[in-house]
Design goal:
alpha/beta, Rossmann fold, 6 helices, 6 strands, 37% helix
Length: 241
Amino acid sequence: MTKRQIGKPAEGQSIDPIQINHIFFVLDKSGSMCSLRQQTVDNFNEQLQDMKKDINTKQVNLISLITFAGARFIRDVRESQPLSQFEEIKLEDYEPDGCTALYDAIGHAIMKADVSIDKYKNFDNAALIVILSDGGENASTEFNNEKITELIKNRQDSGKFTFTFMGCGEIVRRQAYQIGIPQGNTTVWDYNPGSFGDVYVLNTCSTKSFMGARDMGQVATSGFYTATFDVDANISQEQNA
């Protein structure tokens, strides 16, 4: 397979047609995820394998994995690695313990995405931040509800960011909506392993659909899990006009 080489355009050159997708997986590893530890690792690796089967050679997919528990336990497991080179995670990479610094983890991912996009600012960039959590915020120290909501709105208004949320139960869905993540970008699982696996399958399909829609000019969407990509592609183009 031919590898895409990302070089800096010459002075005065227009934006390169290469599309760069900055995909961040933000995984809750607080203590309540212990019962889903093995399945989380297995599901993540299966998603990774599935995504690799349909790599679009017209795009560069840079994958980052962030895990979080308490505010001091936000970890960059892998950072901006090409999808083709991203190795499967191991059980020791995901050891649930502690509280849920959800807002700080999202803020951390946004800051990382900003840096990554700025590095390739002369290209066609899109950021996809995929958040998974089985519970509500209870441990952040840097970002509160107001700050993270403002930050998410600001990035979504830029037309380059898509935030999605996979959560456990309707309470988590409501929390995602309260911080500005569109309802079409949220999905929930019930308190059983089968439902959790179904949500991961949906997320894999939606991620691949998002990557495919980028070929048609999409940058961001508010219907990630509801397949309204064609509508949102037009919205993104109007925002950037």
